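Record 1 of the preview.
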Amino acid sequence: MHLFAKKSVALLAGGLIAVSLSAPSFAADKTLYERLGGKAALQAVVGELWNNVAADARINGRFKHTKPEAFGGQLVDFLCQASGGPCQYQGKDMKSAHTGMKLTDAEFTALAEDTIKALNKFKVPAKEQGEVIGMLASLKGDVVGR
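->
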């Protein structure tokens, strides 16, 4: 898997998890993982995100040596773990994963936009999308310009 892909997987995973895709407050007693619909739902969102990234000329070159199943598998595990699910993410932390990549603000923004597009497809509410983007934004210093 290309280094950027690994880092992006972790970044997006963190962002999507933070998205909390939290359903209405009636589900407050459930984990985010459960509110998102479990692993199958995470796989669907991540699959759509891959499609978006692959079609995005602004960043798809960063993923040209990345296999979709590798991208998806790591990101799903990251999101699953971060949302309270049973998975174990085995990837690097964001700083280590992105060191030497010299990612730009524009690339970071493109990935965030592709994430929003995937969330929109699955009708994730604006509040939860805001949480996801907030999570992504909190990781920016660990990934951009390293």
